[in-house]
Amino acid sequence: MARLLLNLRNVPEDEADEVRALLNEHGIDFYETPPSFWGVSAGGFWLPDAAGLAEAQALLAGYQAERGERMRAERAAALREGRAPGTWAGIRARPGQALGAILGILLMLAVATLPFLLIAR
Question: What are the TM regions of this chain, as residue ranges (predicted)?
Answer without folding.
Answer: 98-120
